[in-house]
Amino acid sequence: MTQDAIQNTTLTAPPAAPARLLFVDDEPAILNALKRIFRPQGYEIVTATSGAEGLELLEQKPVDLVLSDMRMPEMDGSRFLEQVFARWPDTKRILLTGYADASATIAAVNRGKIWSYVAKPWNDNELILAVQQALAHRQLMQENSRLTALTQKQNEELKTLNAGLEQKIAERTAALRTANADLHHSFLATVQVFSNLIELREGRLAGHSRRVADLARQLAERLGLDEAEQRTVLLAGLLHDIGKVGLSDKLLGRPFNALTPLEKAEVMRHPEKGQQLLLGVPQLADAARLIRHHHECMDGTGYPDQMGGLMIPLGSRILAVANDYDGLQAGTLTLAAHLPKDAQEIIVKQRGKRYDPTVVDAFMAMLAEAAPKQEIEVTVSAAELKPGMLLTRDLLHRDGYLLLPKGRVADAAAIAQLLHIEENDNQPLVIHIRRGSGPATLRGRAEEAPVRLVKEVQISAARLKEGMLLSRNLHHHEGYLLLARGNHVDEPIIRQLRDIEKASGKPFVIYIRMDDR
Is the pTM of this model over 0.85? Predict the structure, then answer.
């Protein structure tokens, strides 16, 4: 294949055909009701009155999603969805149940690997939302597979080129890097879109996930995490509430402290659900682990696993502080919203109990340093916005979704789109920009300080002494980060590391600065 053929390979997905849905229920009236609900949505709909008929239809032509009743003669919904999963694993599966049979529902979850279940009688809007979310997740998985396959194909094409022609190798390498960069950017863009969908579900909390992600990434950078670990924290921040997509509007709209014990128990399952939703995306496996544990407490009283101390991944400890700081100000944790100063006092009061003391100290220092540097901002409309002006806040549409992120420098294309939005909505946008910003206001990247080489020595946890300084990041045997380089160890940390070694039967390899030995 020629160089031009590789360069012209497109990363754009082909136009998507309408999703094909299969409804299975032994009651024709139920099937007719479902068709009335979903036909206006533009889906292609097929129906079956039994599990056997549903399997025959799937053999003729697979579908994107199956919505099946639980109680049916001959083959119930659990057995039917189990066969669907075994033969068509990419098809999303939703269970429709009209009776309170916990064991049957659990069987459907375990054997049929269902996406979710909906109780009869259903709420039309909630049922439509469940189907839309399932289809969106399926599309995300397919797009990720398509882009990965495309990159693999380009790699194979590159290998067939003449290795002896240095110029061709350089050109193919450049094309491959471009494709990989596009793949990475497409993946991050897809995650951002999915994050926006979550926030649309949350309504008044629009922007929460993005603020948490940005704050957590800054905190991870301050604590010395490398770029890959910072990116994992960022992804976890964007998707940390993905497990809430199935919660009702009633639960999402009330502060956590105002919920009943049963409602709190339902909400407290969202970190585990969030991890389960992301397990099918290998690139998000590390972020999924952080999401599962971002509500654990240092004293072991958190959820879902009651982990404590260093057993909680460092990224989760970072996410806990960033998430609660924003939640306290938004009023999602307590009955009343708090000012930033009050939220900081609550965070500090829970230092060592709810939050990692090292993370809290770094967080407070980061806020203290940022306070004097707050940029003076002004508000403008889209008509007053000029190319080169720097946004100091996220720009959100009145419906809650993100238009432009904080830190974005306006250009002619973005301004034209904003003017079009204002015209269509017949309502001016309120855009916050840095005072005095204009053309050529992009700030250059700060010059990095020269790397200082230090002498280090490798020791075990048994030889650690209070005050020693870590010269490298320390990871758990399962791969997640426990302590970042630059941390001084104290007696509680040393005890926890020795306990972890004893429980796992595997010694740590710990690097410390030689002059601290």
Answer: no
